[in-house]
Structures are given as C-alpha cells and as structure tokens.
Amino acid sequence: FRPVVLSLNQITRSYALKSDLKIKWVRPEKIPCYKPEKSGDLQAMPKLAGTELMKGFRESKELETANEHVRNLFSIEHNRRREMVEIFKDDMVRRVYRHELDYGSVEAKLGLMTARIRSLQEYMEQFPRQSVVKVQLKELIDKRKRFLRYLRRWDYRRFEYILEKLDLVYKPYPTKFHWITRKDSLRKLTDIHCEQIKQSRLEEYRQHLEAQQIEFLEKKLSNLELIRKEQIECQVPVTVEAEQIKAVRKQVEELKRKREAIAESRREQEDA
C-alpha cells in the first residue's frame, strides 16, 4: 500500500477558523412593508372626539334641536368605525381637491387612498394576523406609489404640493435590489475596521514624526551653518544661503512656540 500524505490545507482548515477581529454583526430588524416607516406616512389616523355626527346627518336641522340621547344615536361614538373613516376621507380629500365636487382628479384619489391606508394601518396594529387586510393594504400602498411616481415625472410642483398637504414622504423603489446577508455585511464591517486601523496607525506615525520634528530641524540648522562656514573658509562657491538658514531657524522657533502654547492649554484644562 502506498502511504497517504495529507497536505497542510487538509489538516488545518484555516479558512473556517473564527476571526480574531472584534467585529459583531447583528441582523437588522425586519420592518413589514405596510408599516408607516416603509409606506412614507408621517402621521397616523387622528382620534376624533366621538361627538361628531355621521357624514349624512351633519346638516340635519332636526338633530340641532333634538334630545341629547337622540343625537348620541347618530354620533360616531355609537356607530360603526366605518363612519369615522368616511369623515377622515372627506378631510383628506378637502386638503387637496380642486373644487367641492372633485372626487376624480389625481389629487383627490391620492387623498382617498391615503385615508384608506392610514385606517388600515391602524386596524393592522390591533389585528396583525388579518392576512386579507394586509394584502389590501400592500396593494393600496403600491398603487399610491405609482400615482406619486407619475406626478413626480410629469408635474413636480403638484407632486411636492401633495406630499406637503398629506404629510407624506416619497420612497421610490431601489434601482438595484440585494438581499441582506451575513457574509456581505461582514465584508463591509471588516473593510471599515481595517480602514479605522489604518487611519489610527497613520495618526500615531504622524504624531511620532511631529515629536521628532524640532530635533530634526535643529540638527539641520547646525549642519547648514557648519557647511556655510566651511565653504566660506575654504573659499569655494557658497551653496547655503543665509536666508535659508534664517527660514529654518524661524520654523524651529514657531514650532517651539506652538508646543509651549499646547502644553500651557493642557495644564489649564487639568487645573480646571
């Protein structure tokens, strides 16, 4: 039998070892698409007092002089939730309609859809397992987004007016969809971590060089003075100008002055 020789890669699985980097990835919380955070609704459905009359009995003269118990029978508080939703729809349409009988323009349709979406969102908060209502709400949000995309393309002023009046934020579809995976997220976190290490080491190296800067310049100044003196004594062409020596000496004095100011400010902070 031939002896079987295992390679080093087969013995040690270095690619599967746990990383020593202090990087922790937590999967982001999934937010359903029908939530206001995703749909773009900045306000929820308002809470009415309950004493308002139903939509068809607001202008009734008989109820103005009727008994209190009779008025309660026609108030929102003692009727179905649908009556309150109808009042909310009228209020949203009145914010953006073109005239009093307008229920067919794009603005009025967007107001009706927004009122319906917010009422269904409130309903889903109470009954989150209603799958039929959930599907209806998703379809309404997508339909409103298509209407807003149309307005944004062909009439941007009206688009901004609608967003302001209905308290909406337009969130377009992403141009490129990608799944949130642990592998890709760890790659990004590793790149960020490596960049932070790189910047911190560069900063340490810069501070180390700045600490040696005065000593280096003083040595440079003494060498320049010595070279100039020897060139003058040997009567050879002088390559080191006096202005160059003055510039180096001025630079050394400025650095010393800055170091003293920084040290003094640190002492004041420690005393305070």
From TrEMBL:
MF annotations from Gene Ontology: RNA binding; structural constituent of ribosome
Primary localisation category: mitochondrion
InterPro entries on file: Ribosomal_uS15, uS15_NS1_RNA-bd_sf, uS15_ribosomal
Record flagged with keyword Ribosomal protein: yes
Subcellular location: Mitochondrion
Entry keyword annotation includes Mitochondrion: yes
Protein name: Small ribosomal subunit protein uS15m
Family, similarity comment: Belongs to the universal ribosomal protein uS15 family.
SMART domains referenced in this protein's UniProt entry, alphabetically: Ribosomal_S15
GO biological process: mitochondrial translation
Entry keyword set: Mitochondrion, Ribonucleoprotein, Ribosomal protein, Transit peptide
Pfam families, A to Z: Ribosomal_S15
GO cellular component: mitochondrial small ribosomal subunit
